[in-house]
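Margin note from the TA: students keep mixing up input and output lines. Inputs are the sequences; the output is the structure of the whole complex. Example:
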Amino acid sequence: MANEVVDGSNKIVRKVNLAKPMITQEDIDGVVAVLKSGWLSLGPKITEFENNFAAKIGAKYAIGVNSGTSGLHLCIKALGIGKGDEVITSPFSFVASSNCALYEGAKPVFVDVKEETFNLDVNLIEAAITERTRAIVVPHIFGQSCDMTRLMEIARERNLYVIEDACESILAKHSGKNLGTFGDVSVFAFYPNKQMTTGEGGMILTDNKQIADLCRSLTNQGRSNNMQWLTHDKLGYNYRLDEMSASLGVTQFSRIDSTVSSRQTLAALYGHLLSGTHGLVLPSAMNRNELSWFVYPIRVPAQIRDQFLSFLHSRGVAAKAYFFPCIHMQPYFQRDFGYSLGDFPVAEKLSFETVVIPFYPQMQVDEVDQVVQAVKAALAELLPVRL
Ligand SMILES: Cc1ncc(COP(=O)(O)O)c(C=O)c1O
């Protein structure tokens, strides 16, 4: 069967997925109601989703988009960043946080990360600033952040925009303040592996009316609010979020506190069951950060990472090297910018060591047990001698 696998000792074991969206009857009823209404785009659901999102996360304006990537692209565009400009960002992230600059002809300039947080090392930012630097695109990886207090001080001192890539960090906090409310503009994402989902989808958040109006217009083919349907005053895109997705957004977002808290409970359980395992580094929240758990990233010695993954797969446990490779080591970054191994040693170390394991709040106790046993057995077999 597709959800089972034969393990090393010829036993049939169940497959445990890496992620699973949590879809309730309320979600299904909401989407069906939209379908029955016949109003499938630019309707009341997107407005409701945007209003609820802005109010809860804490910003004046929210603009729904059809993906986190679209949202990031529009932030770069709305801030007028383009050819010849540089943006400072992290090499340990999903490619979209750098691609958004490339789309507009700007150059991503990488700064290495801190091992403890997987996020930007703010002490390295100032050395990377040049007269071409316009913004910092700061990804909040794995649901926690860098030292956003210091990063904002640097940005204000040096007159740089801050775009927060909060795609993995809904309701995570730094110093008690929601991520996505520090910078000039921020973006959230709702792909099915995220804390909440709309299928595909994202949200731009800002307190700045000019940025908000521009993003909304660019999302909708360059139309302004009061313009006729076939008049466009600028080059825009179709990055709209449809009404079925927005309905899913409304119901999923109404449960976000309990979702984030169930994920916290699962992370604590993994932490308890895996702590003290020889060869394993477990994730933890840094000072002043309150995590919103996106994945559960564990670290194993780089020399055994691939064998570790194969072992887990053979036990029916899904697992992935994450983020591997780093952005600067992606083939097109190496080719176009000449990056090579050794350029960002901390990001590379994390990239070679980090593995994500199954993580979703509906995980059954016996599934958690299967994962934990597989992780321990893998390390016992692959690390017979103390490193
Ligand atoms: C850090 C980060 N940025 C951007 C994105 C892009 O979001 P989307 O897949 O919705 O385009 C993701 C999604 O995985 C992400 O993790």
